[in-house]
Design a protein that fits this description.
The protein is α+β, with helices and mostly antiparallel strands. It has 2 domains: 140 residues, 2-Layer Sandwich (Alpha-D-Glucose-1,6-Bisphosphate, Chain A, domain 4), CATH 3.30.530; 107 residues, START domain (Alpha-D-Glucose-1,6-Bisphosphate, Chain A, domain 4), CATH 3.30.530. 25% of the residues lie in helices and 43% in strands. It has 5 helices and 14 strands. It has an 8-stranded antiparallel sheet with strand order 1-2-8-7-6-5-4-3. Strands 9-14-13-12-11-10 form a 6-stranded antiparallel sheet, with helices on both faces. The two termini are 31 Å apart.
């Protein structure tokens, strides 16, 4: 993955995924607040030109941009994404392209103008991060299309052995795709697993509710940042999330306090 550089100084990164569903179904998943919140982070969308697009990443980190183009169910553009003070302004384009066989390609393109590579590394990381979330999007549209979703997450900091300390009690040590997992904390089937440099496991869960679970770890300076995120679907999702959310928050706080 690398930054594309145009002759006019336009720089961009992009990511895409093929998912099941009609353009209208996929649009609901990527261009509405409830849809985006069912596979990404809690998000609100004012569905119009000039509307606000706000994503809440937790820990007080919130990103708000403005919709500048709105063409349902195929395309929208928003301005205002960025890396903070002194960073170049960034436009983000979302595209839904219908394919044969009842699928669509979802593509996101971040673009900005700059004469230096000062921000290239940060946006390459963003491009890479979309891969994980797009895997969740594909699972959600494959198994739970159109269903109500309630999501929650828990996170903390650990040392170099944090991945083992996280996956061990969850029964996820060295699991592989297709493997069934069942213990007092978690039950489901592994959809994606990586225990190398990219440390993550995604499951289709039956406990603490029916849905998707994403377990991950990544370096954060010296320590490791570890997290678990649940997207629960169906009529009982809200009740299941309300019960399980505080339990997982307490579980992480005991083992992986944010203070390190």
């Amino acid at each position: 993955m690398s930054v594309n550089i145009g002759e006019n100084g336009r720089r961009s990164v992009q990511a895409e995924v093929e998912v099941p569903g009609s353009p209208e179904q996929v649009w609901q998943a990527i261009a509405t607040g409830p849809g985006i919140s069912s596979w990404f982070v809690p998000t609100t969308v004012e569905e119009r030109v000039g509307g606000a697009f706000t994503a809440d990443f937790g820990m007080g980190i919130e990103s708000t941009s403005t919709i500048t183009e709105w063409e349902p169910p195929h395309r929208f553009v928003k301005d205002g994404d960025g890396m903070g003070e002194n960073a170049p302004p960034v436009a983000t384009e979302w595209i839904v392209e219908a394919k044969s066989g009842g699928t669509c390609v979802v593509r996101v393109v971040h673009s900005w103008f700059a004469s230096t590579d000062d921000w290239d590394g940060e946006w390459e990381s963003v491009e890479k991060g979309w891969v994980d979330f797009f895997n969740i999007l594909r699972l959600a549209l494959t198994h739970f299309p159109g269903q109500p979703c309630s999501a929650f997450d828990a996170a903390g900091m650990g040392d170099a052995d944090a991945w083992a300390a996280l996956t061990g009690p969850l029964g996820l040590t060295d699991v592989a795709s297709g493997q069934e997992v069942k213990n007092e904390l978690l039950a489901g089937k592994v959809a994606i697993a990586s225990h190398g440099d990219e440390k993550q496991v995604m499951l289709l869960t039956s406990e603490p509710g029916t849905g998707i679970c994403h377990v991950s770890a990544m370096p954060f300076g010296g320590p490791m940042y570890v997290a678990i995120r649940f997207y629960l679907f169906g009529d009982g999702a809200a009740a299941a999330a309300a019960k399980a959310g505080p339990e997982w928050t307490a579980w992480f706080a005991e083992r992986f306090p944010m203070g390190g």
